[in-house]
């Protein structure tokens, strides 16, 4: 009678299949069920209602979408929205990946300092943060004062798409 060594590769699929059956049958599913129910109620149901209303009011059909995409103002706003979101994403990529790389390359103490540099602004109220950006970006603000001091002409940053991209990139960078 020949004996074979036990190969762990042969036992893994059987164990994995058994775990999958136990997931739906056992306690693991019931641990996740309340979160799934909350997700369906708070996200899925409102999304389904809004989608249904977009087709049904004032009457059933595609007329709401035809109106939205047929109005030049709406298309301009939609185009501007996608352009700003693309610019914010690009700025976050360009700033975030090198910053994250540096965070992995430094020691633990410096890594903590770098993490705090990203997270401390979020401990401040959104209103205060917005006011700080207004002070920095306005025509007589800090950035344009530095430009004038070095002999450059001031740049209009406040109430422009560039200012919006700068502010949104600062807020969204930690989520990249």
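^ structure tokens above, recovered residues below v
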């Amino acid at each position: 009678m020949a004996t074979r060594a036990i190969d762990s590769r042969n036992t893994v699929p059987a164990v994995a299949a058994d775990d999958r059956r136990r997931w739906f049958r056992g306690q693991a599913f019931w641990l996740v069920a309340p979160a799934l129910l909350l997700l369906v109620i708070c996200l899925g149901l409102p999304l389904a209602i809004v989608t249904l209303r977009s087709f049904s009011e004032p009457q059933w059909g595609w007329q709401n979408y035809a109106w939205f995409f047929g109005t030049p103002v709406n298309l301009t706003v939609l185009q501007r929205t996608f352009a700003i979101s693309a610019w914010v994403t690009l700025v976050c990529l360009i700033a975030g990946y090198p910053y994250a790389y540096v965070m992995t390359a430094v020691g633990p103490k410096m890594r903590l300092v770098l993490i705090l540099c990203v997270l401390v602004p979020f401990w401040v109220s959104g209103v205060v943060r917005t006011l700080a950006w207004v002070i920095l970006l306005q025509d007589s603000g800090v950035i344009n004062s530095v430009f004038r001091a070095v002999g450059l002409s001031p740049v209009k940053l406040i109430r422009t798409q560039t200012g919006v991209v700068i502010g949104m990139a600062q807020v969204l960078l930690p989520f990249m």
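Residues 27-70 form one domain.
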